[in-house]
């Protein structure tokens, strides 16, 4: 197995190289080119392709979920800034709306399985486009809104998670018209009612939300190091949530 990791941030790319070097993630190639410059033929040698990879959270999630090492899979978390409520909300007019470039590679290369993620707040139209494009390319698609609190994190951090399976492989658990499976009003039913009795997160607003990430004394000035490090953490997915989503997919497509 050989993986391809792609991100335009040199800091996180070096982070991924360090993870590869220490054998914490799958060996592979780190590519710093913008996705607009990636050609379908460039991806042919790789079993796993991680677009907008950040600090390789999707690779960790695949490992945690025991995704088969011999099965080709793509992952991607397109930039959220065009659709995030915290941004300028320029949507499809934002130059960071990069889904069309990723979809072009998907449509040409046709990976059998791909996973993706996006902010839940404000990205409904983005997800509609993604599902419509994937279904037009004969993928069966499933999606859900899952919060980080569902795996024990002390914050809500809701995200859209989606999976696409090439139609020729088939999967009863993935359906056309998957938009009906996505709730924009609350957590998925699988995690129960958000404020039900016995839910340890029924008072999640009161839980300590302060980050427990601590710098190590690596000799680098904090003024030079802490900001890019926190930026990398902030843009990362929560691998434990992704692993649960992948595990649910494997339950219907082992």
Concise account of the structure shown:
This protein is an alpha/beta fold and about 250 residues long. The chain contains 6 helices and 7 strands. The chain has helices at about 10-20, 55-65, 100-110, 125-135, 220-235, 240-250, and strands at about 5, 30, 50, 75, 115-120, 140-145, 160-165.
Structural account:
Helix content is 28%, strand content 16%. The chain is of the alpha/beta class and 254 residues long. The protein has a single domain (3-252), classed as Vaccinia Virus protein VP39 (Rossmann fold). Strand 4, helix 3 (99-109) and strand 5 (113-119) form a beta-alpha-beta unit. Helix 2 packs across helix 6 (239-252). The longest helix is centred in the last third of the chain and has 14 residues, at 222-235. The protein is globular. Residues 169-224 have low confidence and may be disordered.
Radius of gyration: 18 Å
Strand order of the largest sheet: 2-1-3-4-5-7-6
The percent range for helix content is 25-40%
Task: Write the CATH homologous superfamily.
Answer: Vaccinia Virus protein VP39
Structural class: alpha/beta
Taking the sheet with the most strands, its summary is:
7 strands, mixed
* Number of distinct beta strands: 7
- What is the average per-residue confidence, as pLDDT, rounded to a whole number? 75
Strand percentage: 15-25%
Estimate nothing, just give the exact number of structural domains: 1
Alpha plus pi helix count: 6
CATH-level-2 architecture: 3-Layer(aba) Sandwich
The low-confidence parts are 169-224
Distance between the termini: 19 Å
Shape: globular
The CATH topology turns out to be Rossmann fold
Order of helices and strands: EHEEHEHEHEEHH
CATH class: Alpha Beta
